[in-house]
Write a structure and sequence with these properties.
This protein is mostly helical. About 95% of the residues lie in helices and about 0% in strands. The longest helix has about 70 residues. The radius of gyration is 33 Å and the shape is rod-shaped.
């Protein structure tokens, strides 16, 4: 191989390294973004389930209060 061919191959290798490094940085950034979005979705699910449980408990207490009031009215 001539010196010009070796030089051209080195330039190509340098360009390929640059491309691979850039893609690596992009992949790392995308991974971080996806982890953040996934964490936000999981937190949202837990919060939704928690508030649904709280509301269900409140409805159960109200239902019991209504049953107690009906029992009082029926006994009079």
């Amino acid at each position: 191989m001539s010196a010009d061919e070796v030089s051209a191959l080195r330039e190509d290798i340098a360009i390929l390294r640059t491309i691979v490094e850039e893609r690596g940085r992009i992949a790392t950034a995308n991974g971080s973004l996806l982890r953040t979005i996934g964490a936000a979705i999981i937190i949202q699910i837990f919060v939704t389930v928690y508030f649904a449980g709280v509301k269900t408990q409140a409805l159960d207490r109200m239902q019991q209060d209504v049953i107690n009031l009906q029992a009082k009215f029926d006994s009079k």
